[in-house]
Design brief:
By secondary structure, the protein is mostly helical. It is 74% helix and 1% strand. The protein is globular.
Length: 284
Amino acid sequence: MPQALAVAKYTLLELTRRRLVFVIVAIGVALVAGLGIAPHVLPGDHTDQDRVIALLTGLQGVVPTAMTLCAFAVGMTVMNHDLDSGAVVSIFAKPISRASYTGGKLIAATGLLLLISAIFTSGSLIVVAANGGSVYGVVFWTCAALAANIVLLMLLVMILTVYINNVVAAALVLVFNYLAAQTQSLHAMVQHNVITDAIARTLVNIAYWGVPHELISNLQRQIMQMQLDTRELVVGATCDGHGSCYNPLDRVPGASGAVDIIFWAGYLVALGLVLFWAVRRKQV
């Protein structure tokens, strides 16, 4: 444990020298602050409900993007510098085991991402309070789910950087993450019988249990429901040629349940073990 903490300490020092993460956080926080001010100065948002809808819509785009970029930035650099520079050779030559090295890297990277998540969570709750409040719960759980998701993404990038260039690793994880999100949306449509073809349903279900389940809150459904309540969005039930009808909300995945959380935790443990194995087998 002392060896892992020593590795974590020097890793955090290395990460603080690389300004990219801090630039992303600074820009993200500035945008969140701008979203909090915008409903008060832009025309069209006359009620608290209108301001909350505008704010949540903006946060839904800014916060996940900023936190995901931070996850990629940390995952690409936390181990890659040691591997590319050859510093890992001297590190492993010292009385530091590969398990301690990997554990220290994980402690540093995860701790930094959780700190970043706390910053964005606090900022989001503050701007919500400045615009009528009432949705603190959904905003908090959205940020908590994002924190869980970015740790998983970071782990995927870290594993790939052991074997391939960090930019290529990030690109592959980005594509994989997009496909996983689309699979989750398709699964929601299967669950609500929007997709009724038996073969398509089977393929979607197989794909769904093969990818990590991105943890989500009810934020997207909350926004759509508020838009429907205020008549900002007027959409009726849609029916197909077979007489089956569904609500527009049926296309939007609901909040993650216990099964999704357990599956995410299992995926996290599995990826952590893969990372330890990859570093142990790495030839230096």
